[in-house]
């Protein structure tokens, strides 16, 4: 039996997690249960996208990348794609914890037994597969393994034509659901088995797009864009291809890989088209949430879209940590950290998820926790340049300027010509009184801006470090006109730590509050 700590209503439904009346996280009321003693009670708004911290008490699975046994090594994309599609289908089931792709795929090519994988990802089962693809023939062998004892819960071999790949995926998905004894509601089953195309060629192009997108490099995004567009030409109603294109363009826009006036219209159009085709596609709602948050600065609408994305894709770690950033930037720190922790539960080995959770801690003013998170990332991957970027921001907010400069230098050395990191490095130089180095960075950014996209926001950063507030605010006005994505974090950044993250007088300058008011970011 469960009792709501807010309204005291009791429930006999042991699968229920939230009070039907006010959304409070429920606890067991049984005196012989350990759960009531360990459950954290958080008043959480009713709806999607909330973190229970209790994922261990529902069925759980990791879908490993399928092994390519074909003679052609180029079929690697197909094997990865099949596994990812199965993972995405299972991730739509709310009563099933599915380890996110990044963490599950981190074991690719490694000789690790299922028990170690289960412990690392905190899952009870693992789905493995082997694929042989020859022209239009497929042989796919899959097995569902119990982590605790290594025994098979289910296995099957499929010898089919390439055109049958969609039926194979559906059969595997339903077999896994049956083996794990997970009940599917009618609407949930329809979402899990939803098919966007019967065109095998379009599907393979889409899988190639996903393969290159997941490299998370500028080159990878450009190749992914090409493949997604080709998939859309073959199948104009393939909503995931439009959503994938939107995701690529969002990354390219934020990191300045392409001019904003070229990217943003395409980003919006791809998102809109994905939603026109399928209004229930979680990835499309996530893309729309990003647009509303970092481009339109409409935080209320972004909140609604993040929650809708999580309602449709409850196991989407990216949606959880992005929603956490929004919550942290609107002062809802407890919920923000809950979303960050949920993302880590789903994708514990993802560098990107760990990084974003570090930023959530930082924006939530939990600077020491953010620093611990940065150090954890560096333990996982010492050459991950963004971890040093995070660490530099933390040191800067603590007034540790020399340490901040060293961290930014390390980040810049590992990440190449990232204008964002270069600009914050210039800010740090200015704050520590090294005017010559700050001016050198400023001049470098101004020269770069003549030939490539360098956001006005980042040039404003350096001027603020130099104490030239008139110039800083002038460039922030340009950033507002250009709708630079980082502007949405300006209010939170000026409230962290010592208050001189944007120059020593920025917090109290009336021009700051006026700018934030005109952007709708004052609350």
Integer-rounded radius of gyration: 24 Å
- Tell me the structural class: alpha/beta
Instruction: Supply the CATH class of the domain at 57-194.
Output: Alpha Beta
What value does the average pLDDT take?
84
What's the name of the CATH homologous superfamily of the domain at 57-194? TolB, N-terminal domain
Globular, elongated, flat, extended or rod-shaped: what is the shape? elongated
Percent helix among the residues?
Answer: 55-70%
What proportion of the residues form beta strands (DSSP E)? 5-15%
Instruction: Characterize the main sheet.
Output: 6 strands, mixed
Keywords:
6-stranded mixed beta sheet; 523 residues; alpha/beta; Rossmann fold; 24 helices; elongated
Explain what the structure shows.
By secondary structure, this protein is α/β, with parallel strands linked by helices. Among the domains are: 1-46, no CATH class; 57-194, TolB, N-terminal domain (Rossmann fold). Helices cover 56% and strands 8% of the residues. It has 24 helices and nine strands. The chain has helices spanning 35-38, 76-90, 101-105, 114-121, 165-179, 186-192, 200-213, 218-234, 239-254, 260-277, 282-295, 299-312, 317-329, 333-346, 351-363, 367-380, 385-397, 401-415, 419-431, 435-449, 456-465, 469-482, 490-493, 510-519, and strands at residues 2-3, 10-11, 27-28, 60-63, 67-68, 97-98, 125-134, 137-146, 152-161. The strands form two sheets. Strands 4, 5, 6, 7, 8 and 9 form a six-stranded mixed β-sheet that branches. A three-stranded antiparallel β-sheet has the order 2-1-3, with no helix packed on it. β8 and β9 form a beta hairpin. α2 (76-90) packs across α5 and α15 (351-363) runs antiparallel to α16 (367-380). The model is unreliable at 11-56 (pLDDT under 50).
């Amino acid at each position: 039996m469960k009792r709501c700590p807010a309204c005291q209503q009791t429930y006999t439904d042991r699968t229920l997690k939230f009070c039907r009346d006010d959304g409070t996280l429920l606890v067991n009321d049984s005196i012989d249960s350990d759960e009531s003693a360990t459950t954290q009670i958080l008043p959480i708004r009713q709806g999607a996208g909330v973190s229970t911290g209790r994922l261990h008490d529902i069925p759980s699975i990791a879908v490993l990348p399928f092994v390519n046994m074909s003679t052609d090594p180029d079929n690697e994309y197909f094997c990865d794609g099949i596994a990812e599609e199965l993972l995405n289908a299972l991730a739509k089931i709310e009563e099933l914890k599915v380890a996110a792709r990044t963490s599950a795929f981190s074991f690719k090519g490694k000789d690790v037994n299922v028990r170690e994988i289960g412990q690392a990802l905190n899952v009870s089962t693992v789905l493995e597969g082997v694929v042989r693809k020859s022209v239009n023939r497929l042989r796919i062998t899959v097995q569902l393994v119990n982590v605790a004892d290594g025994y098979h819960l289910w296995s099957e071999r499929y010898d089919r034509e390439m055109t049958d790949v969609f039926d194979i995926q559906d059969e595997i998905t339903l077999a896994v659901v049956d083996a794990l004894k997970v009940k599917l509601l009618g609407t949930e089953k329809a979402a899990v088995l939803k098919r966007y195309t019967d065109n095998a060629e379009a599907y393979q192009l889409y899988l190639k797009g996903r393969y290159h997108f997941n490299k998370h490099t500028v080159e990878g995004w450009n190749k992914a864009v090409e493949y997604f567009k080709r998939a859309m030409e073959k199948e104009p109603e393939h909503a995931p291809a439009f959503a994938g294109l939107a995701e690529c363009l969002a990354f390219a826009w934020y990191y300045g890989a392409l001019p904003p006036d070229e990217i943003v219209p395409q980003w919006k159009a791809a998102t809109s088209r994905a939603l026109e085709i399928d209004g229930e596609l979680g990835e499309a709602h996530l893309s729309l949430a990003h647009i509303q948050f970092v481009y339109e600065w409409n935080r209320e609408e972004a909140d609604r879209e993040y929650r809708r994305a999580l309602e449709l894709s409850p196991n989407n770690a990216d949606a959880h940590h992005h929603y956490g950033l929004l919550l942290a930037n609107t002062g809802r720190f407890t919920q923000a950290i809950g979303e960050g922790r949920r993302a880590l539960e789903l994708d514990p080995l993802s560098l990107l998820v760990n990084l974003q959770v570090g930023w959530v801690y930082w924006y939530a003013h939990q600077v020491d926790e953010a620093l611990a998170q940065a150090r954890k990332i560096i333990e996982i991957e010492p050459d991950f340049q963004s971890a040093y970027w995070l660490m530099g921001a933390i040191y800067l907010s603590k007034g540790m300027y020399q340490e901040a400069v060293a961290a930014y230098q390390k980040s810049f050395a590992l990440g190449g010509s990232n204008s964002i990191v270069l600009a914050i490095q210039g800010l740090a130089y200015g704050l520590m009184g090294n005017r010559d180095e700050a001016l050198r960075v400023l001049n470098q950014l101004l020269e770069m801006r003549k030939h490539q996209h360098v956001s006005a926001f980042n040039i404003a950063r350096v001027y603020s470090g130099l104490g030239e507030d008139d110039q800083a605010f002038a460039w922030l006005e340009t950033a507002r006109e250009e709708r630079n994505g980082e502007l949405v974090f300006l209010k939170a950044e000026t409230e962290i730590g010592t208050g001189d993250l944007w120059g020593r007088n920025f917090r109290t300058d009336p021009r700051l509050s006026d700018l934030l008011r005109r952007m709708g970011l004052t609350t």
